[in-house]
Amino acid sequence: MNRISFRQGMLLGFALVVLLLGGAAVQSWLVVERLVDQSRQSSDRAIQLMASVQELGERTVDIERSARQYLVLDNPVFRQRFDEHLTQSLAVVDRLDGLAAEPLLPLLGGWRMVAAALRSGLDQNIPQAEILPLLARMAELDGLLKQGGQRWIEAENRRSLDELEANRLRLGGHIGLALLGALLVALAMGWWLVRPVRHLEQAIIRLGASRFDEAVTVGGPADLRQLGKRVDWLRQRLAELEADRERALRHVSHELKTPLTALKEGVSLLREEVPGPLSAGQREVVEILQHNVGSLQEQIESLLTLNAASFESRRLQIAPVKPRKLLASVIQRRELHSQSRQLNIVVEAPDEAAMLDAEKMAIVLDNLLSNAIDFSPEQGEIRLVVRHADGLWRFDCIDQGPGIADEDRQRIFDPFVQGQRMAPAPRQGSGVGLSIVRELVRAMGGAVYLVPQATGAHFCVEIPDEQ
């Protein structure tokens, strides 16, 4: 089936399902047609049987009347009528015999014997006392034929109902098997067609997370396998472009840092007036140069940090870690920073272990906590809350600072973007901290977003539970 395309596979699956269900429907129709035909034939036989029995009874009355008249009057006309009625009655008996109603066959044979004895008795002019019992026996046989016919009709009805019930059960089993077969075909085709689509989806997610180390392998239909090869080619090209970007970034950073170092040392010598004393205007220019050189160096270091975070985000090391212990280590790292602002950090975390990349998660929490400390008012409170629900680990960092302006909410996670609202105390930052947070969170398959609230900033990080 590997050479079958996606469209051909779908058509084949639908064809198999239609054949199974259509076959069951056709079989059901044939069974119903056969049962209807059998019911029609049984009804016709029953009608013919009862009509013939009734006709035989009427003919028997005529036979008895003409026989009595002949015995009393000894008129050949009445004998002729007797013979005619008897011939017609025997024809009716033959017709009843042709209906193949087995319970009636002995009675029909007895009726013929009585008719033959009656005819022989009239031919031999036996006494009337011997003829009358024969006539009575013939009338009795008519009654037995009528009762036997009714019993035969009832037996035929019961047989038809039994056969209908048996066919109903058999037909129900066939329909159940057809439905089960259709379901199995649908599941097999769904597995065969959906599995490669899922692989493609996972490969695209990995590419979106800049994880180019795993080759893209897609099975299933031929066109989807070809698409998988194209996606793998795209992965290789993206990996090459990413490697080129990192090389260029490292090269540019190195080429910038070397003259920048020399420039920084030269500005320091000028500021210390090593070449000679400076005038007031010259000193002001030197101060401007020193400030800009420091800013440029900070930007280069931030760029390198962001590049390193992008590289590290591709390496996941999932291991069990307790969120409370993770938060404690992050808080300890920022203890001096928070004490200088006299801040109270409140932690709410469960004791259960989480399957996370502890190193990357520590960097994420450290950046969020650092921003919260910088923007919180003195003697304020920062809340770090961890919750586990719906297959996600949710980390909340809530401070009481000025918050994020509405116009900054859409771009606060972009590199080198700093919000318009100022921190209560002077701070140095390049605006890459939240970009690093977003990069690492995406690498772990999660999401980070800003929760709207009246005062302060509320950042939320959601990481899938890998257990």
Commentary on this structure:
This protein has 467 residues and is of the alpha+beta class. The chain contains 10 helices and 7 strands. The strands form 2 sheets. It has a 5-stranded mixed β-sheet. The chain has a two-stranded antiparallel sheet with strand order 1-3. A hairpin with a 7-residue loop joins strand 6 and strand 7. Helix 5 runs antiparallel to helix 6 and helix 7 packs across helix 9 (358-375). The protein is rod-shaped, with a radius of gyration of 52 Å.
Strand order in space, largest sheet: 2-4-5-7-6
**Poorly predicted residue ranges:** none
**What is the distance, rounded to the nearest whole angstrom, between the alpha carbons of the first and last residues?**
35 Å
Coarse morphology: rod-shaped
Q: Please tell me how large the radius of gyration is.
A: 52 Å
Question: How much of the residues is beta strand, in percent?
Answer: 5-15%
Q: Name the helicity range.
A: 55-70%
Number of strands: 7
Helical element count?
10
- Summing up helix and strand content along with how strands pair, one would put the structural category as alpha+beta
User: What's the average pLDDT?
Assistant: 80
Series of H and E elements: HHHHHHEHHEEHEEHEE
What does the largest sheet look like? Answer: 5 strands, mixed
